[in-house]
Design a protein that fits this description.
Elements: H1 2-29, H2 36-39, H3 59-90, H4 93-116, H5 128-143
Length: 151
């Protein structure tokens, strides 16, 4: 038992030493020619223009989140599917089947809700009721003269 732990410890020490030696050697052997362009912020090969503080489209994050949720579904379902045949032999296969169906059904209901509300659309359109209410509110304030408090 101790020998196996010693082998793992030796392997871990060698891995750490290898990484440190490569990093230290690279620091001394690589060419260094600093310049204004190299010291500027690098963003996908483009020169930075303006401030970095601006609003991103949140649609990317919503679609990515939906993707991750269903990836987790696959990651959690796959091990159950692998041992499902042995659970059927034991007589507990129906429990696993019901759990998988309920788990997937909850995710599908969430997907249907997001889809119905247009949260998966890349460019979300405003509904007629909210757009017309905003338009009426804008026109109502545009026609009125400014109020003066010094009368």
């Amino acid at each position: 038992m101790g020998y196996q732990f010693g082998a793992v410890l030796a392997f871990a020490i060698m891995a750490i030493l290898f990484a440190l030696v490569v990093l230290i050697l690279g620091r001394f052997l690589r060419p260094r020619f600093p310049s204004e362009d190299k010291l500027s912020i690098y963003e996908c090969g483009e020169r930075p223009i303006g401030s970095a503080w601006y609003n991103f489209n949140p649609r990317f994050y919503l679609v990515a989140l939906a993707f991750i949720v269903f990836e987790v579904d696959i990651a959690l379902t796959f091990p159950v599917v692998v041992v499902y045949a042995s659970w059927i032999k034991k007589g507990t296969g129906w429990v696993a089947f019901v759990e998988l169906i309920l788990f997937t059904a909850v995710l599908l209901v969430g997907l249907a809700w997001a889809w119905a509300h247009g949260d998966l659309e890349w460019i979300k359109k405003l509904s007629r009721t909210s757009a017309s209410a905003d338009h009426q509110a804008d026109e109502g304030t545009r026609d009125k003269a400014p109020v003066s408090l010094s009368a």
